[in-house]
Specification:
By secondary structure, the chain is mostly helical. The chain has two domains: 17-212, Rhomboid-like fold (Up-down Bundle); 216-268. It has ten helices and four strands; from the N terminus they run H-H-H-H-H-H-H-E-E-H-H-H-E-E. A two-stranded antiparallel sheet has the order 1-2. The protein has a two-stranded antiparallel sheet with strand order 3-4. Helix 1 packs antiparallel against helix 5, helix 7 (137-150) packs across helix 9 and helix 8 (167-184) packs across helix 9. The radius of gyration is 27 Å and the shape is elongated.
Length: 279
């Protein structure tokens, strides 16, 4: 890849942190499935039956499949093409936007592709609720469209083709070809998942928070966690009051579950001051 106006250089992308982990994880699982296929084919069938994306299974509770399907690949070229896409385009995006946002983008593409596949399968126009889908293509296509949007003016040369093309035109061609193949049926390739990855990758770049999801989700998580702990404390306080009453002893807690010492209990006429644990 080179920026417009620069001298042409031929270089390979680096192995960035998240890209390396994705390559290693997908490659490890692919090699294990190949080995099990030679010695224990029943294990391979079990894995694909339970971890591939089957829309009918997902709507009946097997929700883990919207993630696990992306780590399974059927053939060498299937695995190699997806890994090449992650490395060639993911490393540039991760280097520019950071590891966390790259992981978010890839995850949004994977889950978005799964949701799109499930939704369209029930129209029976594109696929069937009982057709399994595997592969990381949803995440790869999310990275591809993000690459085209962020590095649109940069020129790339896709070996073995001996010419340069702007990234935005390259991605546009991919979208047109994918859409055409999806509408034509696409054989046994899940082009619907590709379109889902493209769409959700586009939404992430255009509408996603600039600092990523971590800050917003973190705030909501801690607020929900604190509310849960406050509820547990109030519930424990009420149960303890009932328990002590059964033993002819009186203890009192305020509305927040804080213990009120006897001398401070407003019901004893001391003015209503409180002490104890403060949230």
């Amino acid at each position: 890849m080179r920026r417009r106006g620069e001298a042409m250089t031929l270089s390979l992308p680096p192995f960035t942190r998240a890209v390396t982990w994705l390559l290693a994880l997908n490659t490890g699982i692919f090699l294990l499935m190949e080995l099990f296929g030679l010695a224990l084919p029943d294990v391979v069938r079990f894995v694909f039956d339970h971890f591939a994306l089957v829309p009918d299974a997902v709507v009946h509770g097997w929700v883990w499949q919207i993630v696990t399907y992306s780590f399974l690949h059927v053939t060498f070229m299937h695995w190699f093409g997806n890994m090449l896409g992650i490395w060639m385009f993911g490393s540039a995006f991760e280097g520019a936007w950071g590891t966390r946002r790259f992981v978010e983008l890839f995850s949004v593409g994977v889950i978005g592709a799964a949701v799109t596949t499930i939704a369209l399968s029930y129209t029976h126009a594109l696929g069937s609720p009982f057709t399994p889908t595997v592969g990381a293509s949803g995440g790869v296509f999310a990275v591809l469209i993000a690459f085209g949007m962020v590095f649109g003016e940069n020129e790339i040369m896709m070996i073995p083709f001996p010419f340069l093309i702007k990234a935005k035109y390259f991605v546009a061609i991919l979208i047109v070809v994918t859409l055409a193949l999806a509408m034509a049926g696409g054989g046994n390739v899940a082009y619907v998942a590709h379109l889902g990855g493209l769409f959700f990758g586009y939404l992430y770049v255009k509408r996603g928070p600039r600092a990523g999801f971590n800050f917003r989700l973190g705030e909501k998580y801690f607020a929900m966690r604190n509310a849960f702990y406050r509820w547990k404390r109030r519930r424990a306080a009420r149960k303890f009051e009932v328990y002590m009453q059964k033993h002819d002893r009186q203890v009192h807690f305020d509305e927040h579950g804080n213990y009120i010492p006897p001398d401070d209990d407003p019901r004893k006429g001391n003015g209503g001051s409180k002490s104890g644990w403060v949230n």
